[in-house]
Input
Amino acid sequence: MIETKDLTYSVEDKKILEGVTFRMEQGDFVALLGPNGSGKTTLIKILSGVYRDYSGAANLNLMHIGRMRSRGIAQFVSVVPQEAHFAFPFTALEVVLMGRQAFQKNFSFDSAEDLQIASRAMERTDCRQFADRKISTLSGGEKQRVLLARALAQKPRFLLLDEPASHLDLKHQGDLFRLLVDLNRSDGIAVLCVVHDLNLASLYAKRLLCLKEGRLVLQGETGEVLTEENIRKVFGIPCRKLASPDGHSYFFPERVQ
Amino acid sequence: MNKSLNFQRWLFMNLLLLLGLGVIVSIFSFLGNPLVSPLSLFSGDNPIAGDLYFHARLPRTLLAVFVGAALSSSGVAFQSLLRNPLADPYILGVSGGAALGGVLALALNLPFSLISVLAFGFALGSLFLIYFVAKVEGRLPAHSLLLTGVIFNAFAFALILLINSLVTLGEAHQILFLLMGSLEARPMAEVFWVGLFTFLGLAILVFQSSRMNVISLGDETAAQLGVTPATHRKIIFFAASVMVGASVAVAGLIGFVGLVVPHVCRMIFGPDHRVLMPLSALGGGLFLVLCDFLARTLVSGAGFQTQLPIGVVTALIGAPFFVWLMKK
Output
């Protein structure tokens, strides 16, 4: 279980997050929404132990995240970052195998089990075919799938994704969210996913969190929270909700006059 | 990361290459002007050959191996931690800082052990200074790192020349040798100490090498993958600075080894630091032995009495290589 209480994070007097309180159980599927600069990425970095000088509480399985070792956090929480820069020409497989670091000793080689986990993770994200290609030669979307495979190689209980869909084409967007639903349902992994596409949130997430200017302005069941009125309040744009025959809701921003 | 790479294979590969290096190095220690025959060392009918070999040629060749290994593996360490394949101790300014420490110690007439200590202290100090000056918003962009290195080197050299103008002629000569880089005429005891520091530093770096892979992805990613970068960074910077300090104290400024060798090794064996670190050390030793062979033979074979300073040879090879790397 991940929970925060009155979580506040500031950089030089500017409050990036302020009084954020929420709770995420095992088996949750949460979409994190909010305009640019609302603190979504910061929240993910606090929950994964990157930023530790926050105030308020942020707990992972009842332990203070700020006081846990990175290794301990990484054995439960894995992150798919928004972007990744590689200074050296690692292959895709090498990158995925780095997801096993939290389970390896200081100087060690990848065991047969590590290789099996990595290869299984690459199969699930449909990137095993370029296991031996250099990461720098992959397209944005292919790289994203490799980063997701690396996160899965950590065998996480909580998977945090920062705009994972941004580089993906429509097919792989669909594949990604179907995979996330599957990981959530059959593997019981809790998913927290930053998305900008309201429809992806509406179609796949069980719950929503909405950040605005560092504050958590909305949270609750997707169907209840995602209304025309709330979208106007958070994003400041008028939006139409349309119900499709299959029972799902779709959202369309109105044309700005 | 070879799919079937495990500790046994890793060890076997490294021992095999170490053996190969040993053979090549011993061959080159006999070559040169004059040629020393291995047989004459043991037959005893040519005592001069024995003297020449054991007091000049052998310490010099061993020193080349140790210094080459130290510079090359510390280059790999700096490159991974600074996330920049251009980070070589010489270009970064760490060697320049170490030289300043060494020159200061020379000017103060300190014994050899303190020259090493001062060189190491200045190497570590300059590394942190360069690191904090070059950092832009938590990152180390190439241009900022290189500019800082240039400025830092210029500053260190100005101070060295200042000291140079204040000391006696004999000391000034020693300082000049330090600046040009030289493997000549070092007593076996000093060679032994450089070897020891190189070996210990390399052992630490190899032990840290799998974490280096993760740290080369950046501090935030490293933390999210379960590695606390700050802890490892301290150990790695410390070990690399010890190696640079020791080699500069004894052999002076020898540039570009830490740039050329790791890059060639990375092209051949890939970027996995577990493989790259020991192989770069061996490659660095081999590279400097070859450069030293050129330094000993190129001009002396042409009828001159003098030898080229080793730093000149590595710079003549390394600087064009650096330009090619930048343009690639």
